[in-house]
Amino acid sequence: MAVGEFFFTPLVLFIVPKYCHDEFFVNFNFFHVPCLKIAISKTLGYGIVVGSAMIKIPQIIKILQASSVEGLSLLSILLELVATTTTATYSFAKEFPFSAWGESLFMSIQTCLMVVMYFYYTSRPLPGVVFPFLYGGICYVLVSGLTPMSFLVQFVSLNVVFLVISRLLQIVANFRNGHTGQLSFIMVLMLFLGAMARIFTTIQETGDKVMLVTFLVSTALNATLVCQVLYYWNVKPDVKKKEA
């Protein structure tokens, strides 16, 4: 083993560059500010990616348990899918670190499943079967090099619009319904916390202004959804129907 290397060195180098490893474990300078920022950003980034692998599982389970998509907006789900897919394909093409965008990939897969479930529980099986194949084909075109980078840049610049419309549709639907239906509190809370953490990691790892604005807006809108779920916590769809 080379001087300055330890059994945990490969794991540390997965998170920080070699000079930061040396600052921490050779020079014992644990308060090296630039390296601390890198370490926090990378750890937070990978934490978000790991968490995103299950971020929509509570929502999916809630739909399965209720056998219903009551209170959910299909257009909102579709626009969110467009936004996460755009972020993933753009970041992949720009060769950003996976820790800076990996959650978009996992969220896209889970959101696609939610679309299929929406079609299934609204008695539209054919679109539910066709959709994942259509979506997969579009993703292939976007990441295969067939799509010009200029198009991806323009596409991702619309992300804020997609995200705002997506969240506003769900916010308005909640307001009109007077309840949040099958909307999962755990999911919206995790989305809020993840978007807030992404503000820091985006500044630290990519500096991409488009993505930064996207996460700033996402944080504000997800916070609104969290507040709505808490406000309508004890209001159930059936109760509203009986009162009507």
Keywords:
single chain, 244 residues, mainly alpha, 12 helices, globular, disordered C terminus
Shape: globular
Share of residues in strands: under 5%
- Output the structural class: mainly alpha
- How many strands in all? 0
Q: How far apart, in Å, are the first and last alpha carbons? A: 74 Å
List the uncertain runs: 239-244
Evaluate the radius of gyration: 21 Å
Largest β sheet strand count, sense and barrel closure? none
**Relative helix content:** over 70%
Total helix count? 12
Could you state the order of secondary-structure elements as H and E?
Answer: HHHHHHHHHHHH
Mean pLDDT score: 84
Describe this structure in words.
With 244 residues, the chain is mostly helical. The protein contains 12 helices and no strands. The protein has helices spanning 9-15, 18-25, 33-52, 57-66, 74-94, 102-121, 125-143, 149-157, 159-177, 185-205, 209-231, 237-243. The longest helix is centred in the C-terminal third of the chain and has 23 residues, at 209-231. The termini are far apart.
